[in-house]
Backbone:
């Protein structure tokens, strides 16, 4: 094994002035909005600049099912962007903004690590440029206006038991999942509601899928907050509050341009979770990247059964952006977990994810993320298995070596993208299929289920949404990220099981149907041991322990 595999992390170079990143991408000053010393926002006018036509290729980065610590998908994405620059390509990394829930919870920060981070990681992991706060405020403004409307006479005749719009906050807080509000003369009638985490807000999804401000306005108007007593939808547009939400989101819709540890341009924008939402950065940031660079490296949340499936079946349909290649990140330890301690027994899990991606018609490159305690013999087993599958493979050391540790991956990605045929990259189900047919296709083809069963309430909701004219929307599955199945304890490639659908939710503004399977929560909770216990500030004001 090369000595570099076990070498310590080399020091990161000093960050470049943000103006150098702007110049590196040849962005005209008229498209730049300055707001901080380390990052700028890109104006939407860039999207319609005739001198900046779309020219780049989109590279999707996904993974096999992760362990709870994650398997380095973000690190690999950033390292790949850096490596593409090292081999002479112009590259942009597009990633999601981290949520404070995971930052202080079990998973930790979402800005990468080691020599492959988006910088400054501490700022990005915390308040960044305020986008999450703006989305939280817009979400809760709609909730407050809704309850004020009820208090002042309920002119829209809302059925208090059929209100579906909750509150939101960007923190894990299980105690707020179900709450009772009102109940006094000064607060209005009592009703049940609750909080979801901001990453699960429909407004977060809308911000990720909106193409411009006009599209954002249309989508905000279309949000369904509940039903009236006649059973008809009541929308956000009925409250005359869309303009105020637009004002709160006016800056947040602009992508944030920063840099990686090695000065590679990166846009960090919008943060929907991959297990309860569509799990990728904004299509605006991706579209801008494709105008500015040869390659856009875009990460999708969790495994290919979640983020990647949703990209091809949902995001690609909305954006019109077609990936030229997909990188499947895996690791020895994740495959051992899937094999219940046996690496060889876990290898079919790698094959299943590989075949799932190939089923969308996209070339696949497997990136084996190297950890310091990996055994050389184990790494060779995974390499040989990939060779047997007939799929390109590269060992990745981006955490310790930055772009230099991902150059082999970069070259193989370039080769794969060169063979791609965009017309062959397609979703796996037609939109005109019923909700049940689309869910069954995902369950069988992607998860390996024998079939799907619905709770009575979920079945009724699916029927009702179809009657209301929303049956032709794409599906956004909400399920565990730790297994291909809906049971986090089922490892490997489960067979002979039936997927259980517990709920069906309508996100009319975002433009998809959320199908909930298993015990997935829209408001996570903190564990007994939390990453936030390690975070502090030293006497000089430097944030420490945040990774």
Residues:
């Amino acid at each position: 094994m090369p000595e570099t595999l076990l070498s310590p992390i080399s020091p990161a170079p000093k960050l470049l002035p943000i103006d150098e990143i702007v110049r590196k991408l040849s962005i005209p000053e008229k498209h730049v909005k300055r707001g901080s010393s380390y990052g700028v926002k890109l104006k939407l006018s860039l999207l319609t600049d005739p001198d900046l036509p779309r020219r780049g290729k989109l590279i999707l980065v996904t993974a096999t099912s992760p362990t709870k610590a994650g398997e380095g998908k973000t690190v690999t994405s950033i390292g790949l962007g850096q490596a593409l620059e090292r081999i002479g390509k112009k590259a942009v990394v597009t990633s999601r903004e981290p949520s404070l829930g995971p930052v202080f919870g079990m998973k930790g920060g979402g800005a990468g690590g080691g020599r492959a981070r988006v910088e400054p990681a501490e700022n990005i992991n915390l308040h960044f440029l305020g986008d999450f706060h703006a989305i939280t405020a817009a979400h809760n403004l709609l909730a407050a206006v809704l309850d004020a409307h009820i208090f002042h006479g309920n002119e829209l005749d809302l059925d208090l038991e059929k209100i579906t719009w909750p509150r939101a906050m960007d923190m894990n807080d299980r105690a707020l999942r179900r709450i009772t509000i009102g109940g006094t003369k000064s607060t209005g009638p009592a009703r049940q509601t609750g909080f979801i985490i901001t990453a699960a807000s429909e407004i977060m999804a809308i911000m990720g899928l909106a193409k411009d401000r006009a599209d954002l306005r249309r989508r905000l108007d279309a949000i369904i907050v509940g039903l009236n007593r006649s059973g008809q939808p009541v929308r956000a547009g009925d409250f005359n509050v869309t303009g105020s939400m637009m004002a709160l989101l006016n800056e947040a819709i602009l992508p944030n341009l920063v840099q990686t540890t090695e000065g590679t341009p990166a846009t960090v924008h919008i943060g929907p979770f991959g297990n309860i939402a569509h799990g990728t950065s904004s299509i605006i940031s991706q579209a801008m990247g494709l105008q500015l660079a040869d390659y856009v490296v875009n990460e999708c949340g969790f495994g290919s059964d979640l983020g990647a499936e949703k990209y091809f079946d949902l995001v690609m349909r909305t954006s019109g952006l077609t990936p030229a290649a997909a990188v499947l990140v895996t690791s020895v330890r994740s495959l051992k977990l899937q094999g219940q301690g046996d690496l060889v027994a876990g290898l079919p899990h790698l094959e299943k994810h590989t075949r799932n991606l190939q089923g969308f018609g996209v070339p696949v490159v497997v990136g084996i993320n190297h950890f310091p305690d990996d055994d050389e013999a184990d790494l060779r087993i995974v390499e040989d298995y990939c060779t047997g599958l007939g799929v390109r493979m590269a060992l990745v050391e981006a955490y310790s070596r930055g772009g230099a540790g991902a150059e082999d991956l970069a070259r193989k990605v370039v080769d794969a993208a060169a063979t791609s045929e965009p017309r062959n990259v397609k979703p796996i189900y037609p939109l005109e299929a019923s909700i049940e047919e689309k869910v069954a296709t995902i369950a069988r083809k992607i998860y390996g289920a024998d079939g799907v069963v619905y709770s009575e309430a979920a079945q009724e909701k699916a029927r009702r949404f179809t009657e209301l004219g929303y049956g032709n929307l794409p599906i956004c599955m909400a399920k565990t990220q730790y297994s291909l199945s809906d049971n986090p304890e089922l490892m490997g490639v489960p067979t002979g099981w039936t997927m259980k659908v517990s709920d069906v939710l309508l996100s009319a503004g975002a433009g998809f149907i959320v199908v909930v399977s298993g015990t997935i929560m829209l408001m996570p909770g903190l564990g007994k041991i939390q990453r936030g216990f390690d975070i502090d500030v030293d006497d000089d004001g430097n944030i420490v322990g945040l990774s």
The longest strand covers residues 498-507. The radius of gyration is 23 Å. The chain has three domains: 3-130+252-420, 131-248, 435-517. Residues 1-7 have pLDDT under 50 and may be disordered.
